[in-house]
Design brief:
mainly alpha; two-stranded antiparallel ribbon; 6 helices
Amino acid sequence: MNIELFFQYLVAGLTYGTIYAIVAIGFNIIYNTTGIINFAQGEFVMLGGMTAVTMNRFMPLPAAILTAVLCTMIIGALIEIVFIRWLVKPSVLRLIIITIGLSIVIREAALQIWGESVRALPYFTGTAVSAIDINGVFISPQVLWVIGISSVIVVALNLFFSYTLPGRQMACLLGKP
């Protein structure tokens, strides 16, 4: 394997790894604040993405993303109120079964609404062929967006947990002083 191809794969791996890291942060926050292992977490990520694709038909991309985040938050809150909150001292097994069931319901509802075809959001900047060439390694501007926004999210969450009252209270729940 030549060195350019190795670094091209490295950049792709870092990009996908960054996306998975954000999903993992979501798992971690939900588990540490509620004690629930949310097996529907991936479906919420898909729901946000598909909502953003749909909203982008009617509004500019930044507004579509913000609307998708808000809609997904509202759906998550409603699901928590309807399916989780009313339980009195639920067992871990019951919560696992509920979140797996919710995962299936959300996935099937999404299939009914959006179908099976692949969808994508437009590029934030540049086009499909625009890339930065660094010694034979082509980096899309989208990679920079993903890594940059993910880094901002990580820093913002760190500041939230370190310097805000609700964040510090949540950190105490996690066993951190």
